[in-house]
Amino acid sequence: MRTLTLTLLLALLGEPHLVEYAIPTAGANPHCLVAAPDGMIWFAEFSGNKLGRFDPGTQKFTEWPVPTANAHPHGITTASDGRLYFTEQAGNKVAAFDPKTERFTEFPVPSANAGPHTPIQGPDGAIWFTEQSGNRIGRLDRQSGQITEVPVPTPHANAYGIISAPAERALYFAELEGHKLGRIDVASKQIVEYATPTPQSGVRRLAIDRQGGIWMTYFVAGKVARFDPATKTFKEYDAPGGKDGGPYAIEVDSTGLIWFNEFAKNDLVELDPATGKMTTYAIPSGPALVRKMTVDARNTVWYANFGQSKIGKVVRE
């Protein structure tokens, strides 16, 4: 009798486990991914210089070359117009892709060498993004194609992850080297910064829960934290991997559980904020070097395995 693989055994036992799918392009290095409303998983191929799509139903990949050579597609988000928007970190552009026409539209960032990083649709319908090298927050008007930029007050803050807070008509962004959480008001464009209780935290990625709380990873300090916009206070949690674990990506699923990965430990961690309990799941292949996670409409958690050019998901049946 053949020995059951660990993944199959876990599936038979009904235990949560991770499943991965190899991207057709070798060395694609998927940096960020996002679940679309129709269930498709879209991802940016940093080294493959392509935009990719994975159909979970058929397990089929489709890829499209990005018009700008060596653009280094980086962050990606869905938008209400049905298009995908992604940043070209080396191309210094924000691009839109229409799945219906399969056409790209690229918008150059006004400032040179801005390093556009993570995009998100804001409460005003515009595409907002962080500029890692330029130390600014950018705003793309989807109708006019015009990009405006707002400087981050803290010099060399390394603006990183960004999330929309619709109830506040604002966006929050991470300052990886500023060790702060930033907030930008959609109407006034004014920025307020909140220093983390733990110094040298290295705030990297953000997520928002149903109560409007802003969750973040402390990549340098080895923690995750929640910021309460009402009280302007932080609650911090030590990650399982300790100070050197490198918490990176973070998401909130539809049940309110918090998911994050530890860069150095090659794992995903499930945090129950009600109890503080954390459960760790080893990533099957590695080093995975996960930079981004997403949650689809069925509450499935997906992650981009940058290091092994795969995308993976958490199976909880």
Summarize the structure.
The protein has 317 residues and is mainly beta.
The CATH topology annotation of the largest domain reads as Methylamine Dehydrogenase, Chain H
Distance between the termini: 25 Å
Radius of gyration: 19 Å
The backbone outline, from C-alpha atoms, is globular
Helical proportion, percent range = under 10%
What is the CATH class of the largest domain?
Answer: Mainly Beta
The helix/strand order is HEEEEEEEEEEEEEEEEEEEEEEEEEEEE
For the residues shown, what is the average pLDDT? 95
Which spans have pLDDT < 50 for at least 5 consecutive residues? 6-13
Descriptive key words:
single chain, Methylamine Dehydrogenase, Chain H, four-stranded antiparallel sheet, mainly beta, 2 domains, 317 residues, globular
Structure explained in plain terms:
It is a single chain. This protein is mainly β and 317 residues long. It has two domains: 21-151, 7 Propeller (Methylamine Dehydrogenase, Chain H), CATH 2.130.10; 152-298, 7 Propeller (Methylamine Dehydrogenase, Chain H), CATH 2.130.10. It is built from one helix and 28 strands. The protein has one helix at residues 6-13, and strands spanning 17-22, 30-35, 41-45, 50-55, 60-65, 73-78, 84-88, 93-98, 103-108, 116-121, 127-131, 136-140, 147-151, 159-165, 170-175, 180-185, 191-195, 203-208, 214-218, 223-228, 233-238, 247-252, 258-262, 267-271, 278-282, 293-295, 301-305, 310-315. The chain has a four-stranded antiparallel β-sheet. It has a four-stranded antiparallel β-sheet with strand order 2-3-4-5, with no helix packed on it. Strands 6-7-8-9 form a four-stranded antiparallel β-sheet, with no helix packed on it. A hairpin with a 6-residue loop joins strand 12 and strand 13. Residues 6-13 have low confidence and may be disordered.
